[in-house]
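Researcher: Next entry in the queue.
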Amino acid sequence: MKRILTTLKGKWPEYFFEILVLIIGIYGAFELSNYGQNQARKRAEIEILKGCKTELMTDLVEINFNMNELRKSQIALKVILEVLENDGSYHDSLASHFIYTLLPMHFVHSTSSFETAKSRGLDIISNNEIRNKLIAVYDSQYDFFLKAEDEELAEVQYHMRQILPGRFESGYNFEGKENTFEGSMVPMDFESLKTDQEYIYFIKTQQNRTKSYLSYFYENLRKSVESLINDLDQEIKRLDP
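Model: Structure for this entry, 241 residues:
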C-alpha cells in the first residue's frame, strides 16, 4: 500500500495530465457533435423557410390572378345591372359580361413546406415570431379563407343549377384563354330579364357577395401573404447571410 502511495505521489502530475487530456477530448467530441447537430438543424430550418417563401410567392401570384378575375366580375355585374335597369338594348359584348356573373374559382395553393416543419416539430423554426406568423397564416387564415371559398363555390353551383337554366342558352362557355374565365353566355330572352325580379335580385346580391369576397377575404389574405414573404426573406438573410 505504502509502495502504491509512493508511486502515485511521484507520478500524480502525469496521471492528472492524462485525465485532463481525456476529459478535454470527451468534452471536445461532445461539443463537436453538438455543433454538427446544430448546423444540420440550422440547414434544415433554412430549407424549410426557403420552401415556405417559394410556395407563398406562388400562392401570391394565384391570389393576384383571382382578385383580377373578381374585379372583372364586379365590372360585368355593374354593366349588366345598369343595362337591365335602364332598359338598354342587347349587344353581343354583353355575352362576355354575363359569363362573369358566376366564377367557379378555386384558390390553388401549397402547404407542403409548412407540413414538413410540422412533421419535424415546429420548434425547428428558431424565431418565435416567424413561427407564430407561419401558424397564423397556414393554420388559421388559410383555413378560414378556404371555408369562405367553399361557401362561395356552393353558391355558384346553386345558381348555376337554379338561375341560369331557362334564362341562358348554356353556361360554362369559357374559352380557356390564358386560364381566365373569358367566354360568352347568351340569354334566351334578354328583354324578359329586365322584369325578372328573381334574376335582378341575383345580380344585386352577387354584386354584394363579390365585393365582400374581394375586399375582405382576398384582400386580407393577400396582405398577410405579402407580409409573411417579406418576414421570411429577412429571416433567411439573417440565418444564411
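Model: Residues 2-85 form the longest helix (84 residues).
Researcher: Noted, moving on.
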